[in-house]
């Protein structure tokens, strides 16, 4: 009989002679383990894939260079710890490729036609086409007091997406430059980061059409993955168009949450501030205000002159100062109409080789500009009508009294001065007893909020506005 030690040795030798069963690396199982240890795992973490397995070395690949670095610095240790729990200490070692280009970015480059001035994102739905107009850039955006805050915030975001001001919510009336800034952000990010960041620039209407089409074709998972997993920067224009559309709002709510949690940059434009948007879920409106809200006001005369001169410089056309001043003072609606008027002048000048003069401008733009002796609404008239409505004196409105019976009518008068005149914030402040710029800005924003929530303020603004508008048409 063999000794016990010899038997044990023989058994061990026999065991070692058995063929070892190959263990397959299961990345999904590792991810499930990682997920349990993260309170808020970024959604993009689960889009990372295995690039190759060589022996016991597993190489992962991220969609962007930034994501790869983030995994290496923040999650790689946890991933390896989880792998050791599953496969033992002698199991697999996980590394990640942080090169500038991999199969993700190569695929993205295929979707960028050389020589194009726009960038298209390939997807299952043509409604998700994303493009940045090459004519809209920070370089040709004319900055003035009415838009300098929105411009500064937009540029800061374009320099470092996801680092601050998230989300950025830009609101203004029609044709004042929201879309220009949105496309400027996209162009700047594309120029600075290239294919390292996937930047989607779409309209709210395109997002809605994508939801509808995906519901029809049963492809919602693809639609959701496109925006929640494959997007680093989402620029969405005219969000007001999803008002009252419950399914679209539901999808955008979850898309917003996924991107925000993953620290992906979100920029939204609208024609109204979040607080006064109608037919929107409150939870969505509150999220719009999580970051920074910036408004763009109608441009002052000086800014409009600068826009005209910039346009003339781009077209290599000489425009006299008196013509630029005439157009700026008379085209009151928005920048789009201002540029349309200037384009008409330039086209006529080129076509007939005629020098641009003040008389020519008056002749060509007679249907767009106000008449020589118009009835216009002035700050004096607004102060008079507001003081009459509230049984106060104009002197009260210009005073420093802080009682609500005076301060609220004063704020309404400032709001109407901004609405009906082309005066800048500082100019309005001076006409109200030397108030500073920030006081007027606060007054305008405060009245905008109260119009939606306080019937007394809304009724007062409506009544005084009706009186002022009768003055124009009478």
Question: How can the largest sheet be summarized?
Answer: 5 strands, parallel
Which band does the percent of strand residues land in? 5-15%
Strand order of the largest sheet: 5-6-7-4-8
Instruction: Please state the structural category.
Output: alpha/beta
Alpha-carbon distance between the termini?
124 Å
| Tally of DSSP β-strands | 8
Coarse morphology? elongated
Question: Any idea what the radius of gyration is?
Answer: 31 Å
The overall pLDDT average reads: 80
Question: Describe it for me?
Answer:
This protein is α/β, with parallel strands linked by helices and 474 residues long. The protein has 21 helices and 8 strands. It has a 5-stranded parallel sheet, with helices on both faces. A 3-stranded mixed sheet has the order 1-2-3. Strand 1 and strand 2 (57-61) form a beta hairpin. Helix 12 (301-315) runs parallel beside helix 14 (335-352).
């Amino acid at each position: 009989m063999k000794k016990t030690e010899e038997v044990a040795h023989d058994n061990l030798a026999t065991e070692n002679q058995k063929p070892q069963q190959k263990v397959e690396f299961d990345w999904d199982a590792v991810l499930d383990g990682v997920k349990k240890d993260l309170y808020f795992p970024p959604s993009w973490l689960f889009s990372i894939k295995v690039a190759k397995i060589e022996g016991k070395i597993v190489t992962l690949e991220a969609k962007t260079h930034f994501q790869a670095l983030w995994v290496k610095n923040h999650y790689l240790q946890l991933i390896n710890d989880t792998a050791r729990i599953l496969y033992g200490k002698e199991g697999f070692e996980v590394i990640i490729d942080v090169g500038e280009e991999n199969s993700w970015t190569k695929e993205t480059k295929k979707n960028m036609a050389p020589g194009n001035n726009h960038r298209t994102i390939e997807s299952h739905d043509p409604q998700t086409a994303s493009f940045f107009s090459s004519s809209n850039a920070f370089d040709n955006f004319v900055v003035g007091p009415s838009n300098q805050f929105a411009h500064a915030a937009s540029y800061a975001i374009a320099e470092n997406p996801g680092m601050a001001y998230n989300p950025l919510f830009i609101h203004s009336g029609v044709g004042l430059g929201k879309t220009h800034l949105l496309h400027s952000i996209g162009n700047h990010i594309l120029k600075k980061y290239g294919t390292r960041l996937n930047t989607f620039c779409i309209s709210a209407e395109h997002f809605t059409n994508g939801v509808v089409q995906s519901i029809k074709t049963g492809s919602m998972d693809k639609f959701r993955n496109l925006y929640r997993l494959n997007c680093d920067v989402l620029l969405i224009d005219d969000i007001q168009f999803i008002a009252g559309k419950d399914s679209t709002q539901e999808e955008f709510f979850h898309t917003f949450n996924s991107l925000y949690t993953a620290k992906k940059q979100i920029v939204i434009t609208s024609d109204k501030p979040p607080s006064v948007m109608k037919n929107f879920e409150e939870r969505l409106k509150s999220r719009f205000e999580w970051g920074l809200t910036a408004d763009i006001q109608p441009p002052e005369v000086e800014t409009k002159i600068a826009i005209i001169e910039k346009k003339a410089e781009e077209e290599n056309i000489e425009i006299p100062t008196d013509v630029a001043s005439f157009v700026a003072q008379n085209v009151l609606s928005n920048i789009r109409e201002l540029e349309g008027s200037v384009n008409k002048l330039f086209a006529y000048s080129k076509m007939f080789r005629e020098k641009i003069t003040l008389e020519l401008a008056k002749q060509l733009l007679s249907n767009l500009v106000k008449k020589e002796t118009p009835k216009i609404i002035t700050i004096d008239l607004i102060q008079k009508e507001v003081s009459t409505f509230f049984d106060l004196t104009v002197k009260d409105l210009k005073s420093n009294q802080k009682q609500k019976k005076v301060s609220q009518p004063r704020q309404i008068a400032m709001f109407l001065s901004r609405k009906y005149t082309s005066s800048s914030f500082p100019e309005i402040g001076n006409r109200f007893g030397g108030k500073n710029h920030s006081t007027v800005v606060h007054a305008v924003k405060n009245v905008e909020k109260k119009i939606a929530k306080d019937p007394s303020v809304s009724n007062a603004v409506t009544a005084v506005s009706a009186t002022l508008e009768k003055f124009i048409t009478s």
